[in-house]
């Protein structure tokens, strides 16, 4: 955790930003809930538990800054809510998401899996790929289990 905070601090410094206590509080919440896909409001409520003096506008500006610096990715699973997702360290491309249409759970796939597709797109469309977003919609293994037990 402290190592990752350090590295994020350096990323901010490289772009001439400081890791102020307000920004650090926001970063800590994101690290503590790494796979939770929190909305700005969710992040704010969690920051507030520890640092009641920090306002929603500050949290929101921090999230925008982190997005701009590509420390965080902003995603939308089609429910109209922007969610913030830490980029995994060392990953060139954004990870994929499995969104369950029954329970709403969001699981992550960390492997890229798209190398072949990327090669085809680059070759046939002459398109230099920098990143991608991939969300699968379906039924998660937990819901499938429940369904099987009913039978
Ligand atoms: Zn994610
Ligand atoms: Zn990729
Ligand atoms: Zn499910």
TrEMBL record:
Zn(2+) binds at residues 100, 103, 140, 143. The keyword Nucleotide-binding does not apply. Pfam families: FUR. Fe cation binds at residues 115, 132. Keywords: DNA-binding, Iron, Metal-binding, Repressor, Transcription, Transcription regulation, Zinc. The keyword Transcription regulation applies. It comes from the Bacteria. Its cofactor is Zn(2+); Mn(2+); Fe(2+). Binds 1 zinc ion per subunit. Binds 1 Mn(2+) or Fe(2+) ion per subunit. One of its GO terms (molecular function) is zinc ion binding. InterPro entries: FUR, Fur_C, WH-like_DNA-bd_sf, WH_DNA-bd_sf. GO terms for biological process: negative regulation of DNA-templated transcription; regulation of secondary metabolite biosynthetic process. PANTHER family: FERRIC UPTAKE REGULATION PROTEIN, ZINC UPTAKE REGULATION PROTEIN. Belongs to the Fur family. This is Ferric uptake regulation protein. It comes from Bacillus methanolicus (strain MGA3 / ATCC 53907).
């Amino acid at each position: 955790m402290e190592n990752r905070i350090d590295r994020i601090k350096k990323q901010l410094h490289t772009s001439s930003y400081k890791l102020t206590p307000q920004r650090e509080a926001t970063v800590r919440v994101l690290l503590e809930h790494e796979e939770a896909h929190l909305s700005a409001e969710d992040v704010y409520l969690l920051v507030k538990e520890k640092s009641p003096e920090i306002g929603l506008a500050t949290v929101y500006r921090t999230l925008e800054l982190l997005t701009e610096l590509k420390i965080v990715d902003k995603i939308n699973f089609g429910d109209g809510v922007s969610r913030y997702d830490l980029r995994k360290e060392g990953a060139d491309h954004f990870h994929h998401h499995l969104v369950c249409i029954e329970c709403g759970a969001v699981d992550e796939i960390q492997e890229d899996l798209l190398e072949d597709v990327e090669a085809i797109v680059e070759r046939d469309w002459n398109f230099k790929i920098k990143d991608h977003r991939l969300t699968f919609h379906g039924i998660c293994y937990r819901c499938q289990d429940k369904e099987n037990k009913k039978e």
